[in-house]
Amino acid sequence: MITVENLSFEYPGVRALDEVSFVVEKGSVVALVGPNGAGKTTLLRCLAALDQPLSGVIYLDGDNTILQPRSTHRKTGYLPDFFGLYEDLTVERCLTYHAFAHGIASENITHAVRQAAERLDIADRMQVRAKDLSRGLRQRLAIAQAIVHEPPLLLLDEPASGLDPEARHSLATLFLSLRDLGMTLIVSSHILTELEAYSTHMLIMRQGKIVSQDFVGGYRDAAERCRIQLRLAAGCADLESLLENMDGVSDVQVNNREASFSFLCDKELQHQLLKYLIGHSVPVASFVEEKRDMHEAYLDKMQGVSDA
Amino acid sequence: MLNPEFRRNLWLEMTQHRVIGMPLILGAMFLLTYLLNDREFGNEVAVLALSLCGLIVILWGASQAAESILSEVRSHTWENQRMSAMGAWDMAWGKLFGGTVYSWYGALICLAVYLISSDEVVVDTVKNMVLLVLCGLFSQTIALLISLQNLKKDRSITRSQATVYALFGLIAVMPFLQFGFEKEVMVEWYGFSMLNMDFTLTSLALFVVWALVGIYQSMRSELQMHNGLWVWTLFVIWLMVYLAGFMNDAEAMRLSVISSRLLVACLVALSLTYLMIFVESKDPVIFSRLRSMFEQGNWRQLNRNLPSWLTTLLIAFVVCAVLALTFPAEKGLESSLFFVAIYLFVLRDVCIILWINFGKQRKRADMTAILYLIVLYGLLPSIARAMDLGSAELLFFPQWGEDVLMGTLLVAGQFVLVLFLAKNRWQGNYGVTRAIHE
Fold first, then answer.
1. B79 touches chain A (CB under 8 A)
2. Residue pLDDT tens, chain B, 438 long
3. Are A70 and A181 in a shared domain?
4. Which of A215, A235, A257 is the last residue of a domain?
5. Residue A263 belongs to domain spanning
6. Which among A4, A228, B78, B332 is placed 20 to 30 Å from B191, CA to CA?
């Protein structure tokens, strides 16, 4: 869906993006995280073909966004961190304007407007003027405007800032439903717990560079390995040797009735391992992939970069 | 399908209250004039209608046209518009006519009253109306064009900017307003005599077309589309040809007609160089990008990204070179050096402007540059004169006569010095970038 190669962007005297390269698969939801000033907003603006980079290329569905910016604009929905609304227009007119402006045919406008309003749960406020909406509802209207033409790519810069927990939850639900519709989302945010609810990938930035691009959820290393956590119902003296004798198991740590070790992520192999342990009378109470939350993963990566 | 931008502006501008309010207020003013003039619906009402129309479309309309862009940036809705599927032309006319639709509504009422109340012959009445409509359009296009141009330099918009740009629009139409109504005067252009009003209307229409082209090009640029240099080059050549047409009395300057017209063309090219270097952004990153394109031999991209002032500087070079080659036949060899000196002064000034813009504090850099130029061309020569240092003037102006060689050498020295300073400052401050927060 998106391929970025050696992208650099400069503000006078400051390199905001430094040889950034990454790939985003279609249908993924990428959490773009990093400290303030890492270059997240600049990256999103370049992806949206709003700013011209100093060097490098971005391909969106095979189109070079620098040479074909209008094609990118048509395929992309963008919610900036400081968005604006037409304060004196009603919700319906705001959405109608955006639908027309994005080239939706006249006969489909009503449907597109209604659908966007329903997705964002603002259909009951169609005749309310934008300036009379609450902070959360304004945010929803802005997102509705960005998706009214159902773009294949949606870029959101801090979409949940200023929203209450309930609104954040509904935003997460919305993003999941947009992903199910086949949209690709890149969401920049500081609130990692919120991103975790819907992201498939995490792209960490620092000082204009990509620090890492990982899956979100199960902890996997480059060889598709994960960490398994084992809990026992009773003590087992030869657990450590049993594990170390098993092919694929490494980095075993046993502590009383608990153990953790590195193993392959393949579910069938995990099933075989569990069968082997039970077959050797290990009193297994639970056998789970160790999950690390995004926050933990993010801090680990950033710590790694700092140490380096 | 109605232009979405025009439709949105209709929603915002033509509210029921405003649609009713405009004719009521204008009607009350016409009624008062009618009553004060012995209940005569004649010349006084016509003059008021024409004046109100001018005020509404030229000043207020221009302010509205500028606001159609500035308000979008101020309220953070501009990026959404840039990402819409609307083309540059749709966006341009949607804003130009949508943003000003209410002022045109008022103007139409005034023009209708003028048409009814005017006691001039119908042809003159219609020409006056067309003149005002064109003046309104020109003022509005200029205000919108300046707004768009300014976005490339600075996106922090203040409320007073629209008024300032409207004043620029007013300044642009002043010559047409001043001469347009002098109906009996004849204008001589390339030897052809035309009625002043007819010539003004034709000229104004052409200027409006060029301003519209400028808006379209600027809008394309805002939508991240690339513009080549040919449109700007065509405009510069057109303006040179247009203004040179007024140079019909070369005898007074003891020059041939061709030479006098070339002089005008040179003046146009040099003036536009100064105008554009102040109008356009001198962001050091642009120079980094140009350098990178030049090093890669990417001429197509270089053509698309070259600033207009640089193009105009190249055109000015060609005109100065032609003058330097053709003038000696009429004015002697030293005239060649005179045009070389003029061009070197422009190069020196360009380097001064860039040197200031390459400083770490780039805010108000252009104002500082203007101040420097005022000191160089006004204050220092005056001090030299007051101190009876007549020969020092060679440092400040291109000189005609026997000192021309010395003057040319001196300005060449100044140019090399300022070029060196500007290059060093750019390399020192922006040539090697640092990562953010480092």
1. yes
2. 789 999 999 999 999 999 999 999 999 999 999 999 888 888 899 999 999 999 999 999 999 999 999 999 999 999 999 999 999 999 999 999 999 999 999 999 999 999 999 888 899 899 999 999 999 999 999 999 999 999 888 777 777 888 999 999 999 999 998 877 777 788 899 989 988 899 999 999 999 999 999 999 999 999 999 888 899 999 999 999 999 999 887 666 677 888 889 999 999 999 999 999 999 988 888 888 888 888 888 888 888 888 999 999 999 999 999 988 887 666 677 788 889 999 999 999 999 999 999 988 777 899 999 999 999 999 998 898 888 877 777 788 887 777 788 888 999 999 999 999 999 998 888 765 544 433
3. yes
4. A215
5. 225-289
6. B332
Residues of A in Cβ contact (< 8 Å) with B225:
69-70
How buried is residue A130: exposed, middle or buried, by Cβ count under 10 Å (0-12/13-18/19+)?
buried
Taking the CA of residue A292 and the nearest CA in chain B, the distance in Å comes to 29
A8 and A148 together in one domain: yes
The answer on A259 and A195 residing in a single domain is no
A23-to-A58, A203, A220, B44 alpha-carbon distances in Å: 10, 10, 18, 72
Q: How many CB pairs under 8 A join A and B?
A: 117
Residues 153-212 of A with CB under 8 A from B: 207-209
Tokens standing for residue A238: 């030869």
Q: Does B4 touch chain A (CB under 8 A)?
A: yes
CATH code of A237's domain: 3.30.70.100
Residue finishing a domain among A157, A185, A215: A215
Write out the DSSP string of B9-31. Answer: HHHHH--HHHHHHHHHHHHHHHH
Whether residue A308 lies inside any domain: the answer is: no
User: Considering only CB atoms, which chain A residues are within 8 Å of B72?
Assistant: 84
Same domain, A247 and A125: no
Instruction: Answer yes or no: are the C-beta atoms of B199 and B134 closer than 8 Å.
Output: no
Residues A208, A245 within the same domain: no
Residues of B within 8 A of A14 (CB-CB) are: 433-436
Give the CB-side neighbour count of residue A265, counting CA atoms within 13 A: 12
Two tokens at B30? Answer: 């016409």
> Is A141 part of any domain?
yes
Which amino acid does the sequence have at B161?
Q
A278 within some domain: yes
- On whether both A280 and A131 belong to a single domain, the answer is no
A81 touching B, CB under 8 A? Answer: no
Does residue A294 fall inside a structural domain?
Answer: no
- Identity of the residue in B77, B225, B288 whose CB atom sits nearest the CB atom of A86: B77
Q: Computed over its alpha carbons, how large is the radius of gyration of chain A?
A: 23
Residue A103 forms contact with B (CB below 8 Å): yes
**How many independent structural domains does chain A possess?**
2
pTM to 2 decimals? 0.86
Reported as half-sphere exposure (CB side, CA atoms, 13 A), residue B95 has a value of: 30
From the list A87, A83, A2, the residue with the least C-alpha distance to A47 is A2
Nearest CA in chain B to A48: B83
The H or E element containing residue A259 is strand A258-264
Q: What is the pLDDT of residues A238-281, one digit of tens each?
A: 888 889 888 888 888 888 888 988 888 788 888 989 999 999 88
